[in-house]
Amino acid sequence: MSRFDDLREQMVNYQLAARGLHDQSVLDAVNAVPREEFVPADLVEFAYSDSPLPIAASQTISQPYIVALMTAALELKPADRVLEVGTGSGYAAAVLAEIAEKVYTIERHKILADTARSRLAALGYRNIQVLHGDGTLGWPEHAPFDAIIVAAGGPQVPENLKQQLSVGGRLVIPVGSTLRTQKLLRVRRTGEHEFQEEDLGGVRFVPLIGAAGWEDETAGARAVEKTEASLPELIYQSSEHFARIDDANLDNLLERIGDSRLVLLGEASHGTAEFYEMRARITRELIEKKGFNIIAVEADWPDASHINHYIHGTAPDPLLESTPFSRFPTWMWANHSVLEFTHWLKAYNDKVSSPEKQAGFYGLDLYSLYGSIEVVLNYLEKVDPETAEVARVRYGCLMPWANDPAMYSQAVITRQYKECESDVVATLQDMLNRRMDYSRADGEKFFNAEQNARLVTSAERYYRTMYYAENNSWNLRDQHMFETLQSILAYRGAHSKAVIWEHNSHIGDARATEMSARGEFNIGQLVRQQYADMAYSIGFGTDHGTVAAASEWGGPMEVKQVQPSHIDSYEHVCHEVHADNFLLPLRKPIKEITHRELLAERLERAIGVIYRPETELQSHYFYASLPRQFDEYIWFDETRAVEPLGKQTIKGIPDTFPFGL
Ligand code: SAM
């Protein structure tokens, strides 16, 4: 048995059968097709992963589960004749051909049709015929078909395809009113003029482009090219250019931000100096010219509170001490750009006498489970030793996982978590019950302890959820960040205004990205839903240069080369603009047409604390609609890595594992 035979068998068992697919003919068919022959050579190691993979012409080979699910929905019999629209790699055609007598498959991209034809012939499939053409018109010469499968999402069920079904025939097709999310429909022809339709659930396919599908995504842009200007030229005309961050004129940006109470600044990597420096520059202006007094960042509450103390003159500079920020990924906060900014914040606060106007620095994240427990216990020991004793016993249930919180998820198996869950909630409740007494003594200390106690309850739930529901834990984290932001705004009063610094994947509205199809939301979406136009969100992007990132979780920081951007990405379009750095307003566009041309979804790159250029497309790109994600986009064509302050990374599994983008 080869390595791939093993992987294929595991895929059939764990991705198909375990999800309730029990049609033996389909399981056997999937088990008979060597998927590794259908994926690009550099992605062979992912051939049996539970996801679609990119192929030529910016298309995808579908996720194995989806191929199996659609094949099962066709209810194929050995004598059936099948039409497939969207040959792609030819993989699904091969699966269909393992069951049915004859498969006709149509692909609109010639390169894909040609490659699939020769690949299928080389693998010995004699019962598949490949046509280059528009599949929404069907293949009348070979109609009627017992089954028709459409592997791309269209706005409606094409009439031609319905008419080419035999009576009793089944048509399975993704249909949706937007380009990239659809529901899977099964249309059954029950009579000459009768059809029955069933909804088989939500799916996400590349668009069906053709006479009865969507218009060619690039057709609009090409028309503009002929009559007016190319998209990069339009962006050039619609943006404000600058040479250096220090000299950039931000007056127009401040005007666009207007009276917003919240400004969200997102970065496309966690290790790019220009993103940190521009965020600092904008934040300084917001503090000085618009009275912003909160900087809320993607860091843990206790870590950020060290900086908060420093900028209020109540503690030494934590970035120059040995703690905090000694945990992976150290460079995210312990870097020269942040150091310079915190020094500026301290100097600013020194000048401002009113505490209300002073800037505060707060952490929104939830990874400091044990650090936060320590803060709560230290606080209670000082203000209420008896409650501290009870809290210590209650938090004790989390201690077995102190060295590796990610392992706490295993408590789910023994159901031990039931106790911990109620214990951490009870501790928070005790504190809230005594809020009046505690905060009378010192409101700020109480607020700090309360946020840490809240963090412990969220983190307990987060690590527990990691075990069984990945997207739930993502949502839990962003929900926690949003609630923490709300608490800070309430604490700082009705006139408070906040700048939020996080990764683009948290800041850009999740509804405009493929995250939403996975049921994920983010703080950017929650803020927009709550504050509408009173929140202004800005994304940052780059094409090439260097970035600070690790190769694996807990690994040392490396300065890595950022690959030039993918040809189908927003980054590539921006790279083609004849300006190195620019601000591109999207909410109030300088030219409407630019906004419109940018709307259709493209790839977007996200580099986190890990960067894997070898598998960049698979690991770091996702689909999004930029103008729906952000109110403004800031571009730096070439960027450089942040400079760390030179501390050592602590080895081992980090607290952020495995979701610390
Ligand atoms: N079944 C494919 C496989 O196993 O690799 C996956 C197909 S991919 C998800 C969808 C394919 O549909 C793309 O290759 C795309 O070019 C093609 N497509 C989109 N509109 C089409 C049309 N009107 N006619 C034919 N092919 C079309």
SSE layout and pairings?
Blueprint: H1 3-16, H2 24-32, E1 53-54, E2 60-61, H3 64-73, E3 81-85, H4 91-99, E4 102-107, H5 110-122, E5 128-132, E6 145-150, H6 159-163, E7 165-175, E8 182-189, E9 195-203, H7 219-227, H8 231-238, E10 240-241, H9 251-257, E11 262-267, H10 273-290, E12 294-300, H11 301-311, H12 336-351, E13 360-365, H13 369-383, H14 385-395, H15 411-414, H16 417-433, H17 435-441, H18 443-466, H19 470-492, E14 498-503, H20 504-507, H21 523-531, E15 535-549, E16 558-562, H22 570-575, E17 581-585, H23 592-599, E18 602-605, H24 616-620, E19 621-624, H25 626-629, E20 632-639
Parallel strand pairs: 3-4, 3-6, 4-5, 6-7, 11-14, 11-15, 12-13, 12-14, 15-20
Antiparallel strand pairs: 1-2, 7-8, 8-9, 10-17, 15-16, 17-20, 18-19
The protein binds S-adenosylmethionine.
The site of S-adenosylmethionine has 26 residues, from β2, α4 and β4.
Explain what the structure shows.
- The protein has 661 residues and is of the alpha/beta class.
- The protein folds into four domains: 61-222, Rossmann fold, CATH 3.40.50; 229-272 and 501-642, EreA-like (biosynthetic domain) (EreA/ChaN-like  fold), CATH 3.40.1660; 293-363, EreA/ChaN-like, small alpha-beta sandwich; 366-492.
- Helices cover 40% and strands 18% of the residues.
- Helix 8 packs across helix 23 (592-599) and helix 17 (435-441) packs across helix 18.
- The chain binds S-adenosylmethionine.
- S-adenosylmethionine binds at residues 59-62, 85-86, 88-89, 91-92, 106-109, 112, 134-136, 151-152, 205-206, 208-210, 213.
